From TrEMBL:
Family matches, as PROSITE patterns: CYS_MET_METAB_PP
Source taxonomy: Bacteria, Pseudomonadati, Bacteroidota, Flavobacteriia, Flavobacteriales
Keywords attached to this entry: Lyase, Pyridoxal phosphate
Classification via Pfam families: Cys_Met_Meta_PP (PF01053)
Sequence positions bearing N6-(pyridoxal phosphate)lysine: K199
Organism: Bizionia echini
One GO MF term attached to the UniProt entry: pyridoxal phosphate binding
Name this polypeptide is given: Cystathionine beta-lyase
Domain of life: Bacteria
Protein family according to the UniProt entry: Belongs to the trans-sulfuration enzymes family.
Cofactor(s) essential for the protein: pyridoxal 5'-phosphate
Any one GO biological process: transsulfuration
PANTHER family per the UniProt record, alphabetical: TRANS-SULFURATION ENZYME FAMILY MEMBER
Length: 387
């Protein structure tokens, strides 16, 4: 656990910037070289070694935000996750992984692990006891995701970290939904933190990237594997990500505030059946969320009452776009039954509480009133159509 002496906005703005000694420019220069003259043979700078100036410096910002010693930046969230899994799992090893998992991660495990002879168990639920029940003698890693998609369930981070330590098993977390602004799992004892930087770290729906943050020792182990897989991010995009991250705390705090307000508004709405947001007192794990998150985040989902067609409602939204990605400055919605959970049967979706009326909502930075107005007019239009 490494804490900076600086406040969160100062870290976002300044940590890891590269001083432009030559021209004294205000922002970090971009170093695009793939070849660097040796001054010490031991240090070979090369983009795929994750050690170009831009990569090394931005990694410092990510590590500082996550209170870790080290970080690595990848070409995508999945590149980060695959490097994590394939560093700590080899043939004959076993992974315990949360059942409510990002779809791409779930596909990676189910489609690729059998080829490597790696065993895995998806938990039955998201309580610590569900993870404990899945542990085997050859379990080498426990991987969690909290808050989860799309029902925003909360997993007890400290409980999982302690479970891992008791059994001498490493623990990792997908911290994408919370972002380092709202959750720092290392402070609760988790070993490795993974991000899809495509989401909040990038924040403008124009960068695909990923990151891992951990101790020097664990990042060193990951580095040895990751350089062989070759999943680094181009330095042009590293530079873009640095620019985006200067406003990370400003964006995420505003998004979180909007989400809190919108969740209360939706919860009181007669046309809304249920709202899933960890910041609502009605969320079954409100207290747990409060104990491990700095803020409740800007992802939520809600279920429209049966008389409103959820797809028509989304079509009638004008400001809020119906789109696949999340965490950008713009608000977006989608139907999980048509996207992340489309491969499940209706019965399977019913069993985990994902109805056709459920809408996932990634809350942006727009003015709260305009978001509410947009939802109101869309509900009204959908109702009028139904008559
Ligand atoms: C998007 C996402 C990923 C995958 O990241 P990519 O950048 O698309 O590879 C992983 N986990 C979560 C929670 C995500 O939202």
């Amino acid at each position: 656990m490494k804490h900076s002496k600086y406040g969160i906005n100062t870290i976002c703005t300044h940590i890891g910037e590269i001083e432009d000694k030559q021209f004294k420019g205000a922002v970090s220069p971009i170093y695009v070289s793939t070849s660097y003259e040796f001054d010490d043979v031991a240090v070979k700078r090369y983009p795929r070694y994750f050690n170009t100036p831009n990569q090394e410096h931005l990694a410092k910002k990510i590590a500082t935000l996550e209170h870790t010693e080290s970080a690595l930046i990848f070409g995508s969230g999945m590149a980060a996750l695959s490097a994590l899994f394939l560093t700590f799992l080899k043939s004959g090893d076993h992974l315990v992984v949360q059942n409510t998992l990002y779809g791409g991660a779930s596909h990676f495990i189910r489609e690729e692990f059998p080829k490597y002879g790696i065993e895995f168990t998806f938990t039955d639920g998201y309580q610590v006891s569900d993870f404990a029940a899945a542990i085997k003698p050859n379990t080498k890693l426990i991987h969690i995701e909290t808050p989860s998609n799309p029902l925003l369930t909360i997993t007890d981070i400290k409980g999982i970290a302690e479970l891992g330590k008791t059994h001498n098993i490493l623990t990792s977390i997908d911290n994408t939904f919370a972002s380092p602004i709202n959750q720092n799992p290392i402070d609760f004892g988790i070993d490795i933190i993974m991000h899809s930087a495509t989401k909040y770290l990038g924040g403008h729906s124009d960068i695909l990237a990923g990151a891992l943050a951990a101790s020097d020792e664990l990042i060193g182990q990951i580095w040895h594997v990751a350089k062989n897989f070759g999943g680094n991010l181009s330095d042009y995009t590293v530079w873009m990500l640095e620019r985006s991250m200067k406003t990370l705390a400003l964006r995420v705090k505003k998004q979180t505030k909007n989400a809190e307000k919108l969740a209360s508004y939706l919860e009181k709405h007669p046309d809304v059946k249920a709202v899933f947001y960890p910041g609502l007192k009605s969320h079954p794990q409100y207290d747990l969320a409060k104990s491990q998150m700095h803020g409740f985040g800007a992802m939520m989902s809600f279920e429209l009452q049966g008389h409103l067609d959820a797809l028509k409602f989304q079509k009638h939204l004008k400001l809020i776009k119906s789109s696949m990605s999340l965490a950008g400055v713009e608000s977006t919605v989608l139907s999980p039954y048509l996207t992340s959970h489309a491969l499940l049967t209706q019965e399977e979706r019913d069993a985990i509480g994902i109805s056709n009326q459920l809408i996932r909502f990634s809350v942006g930075i727009e003015s709260k009133k305009d978001l509410i107005d947009d939802i109101e007019q869309a509900i009204l239009k959908t109702k009028t159509e139904a008559i």
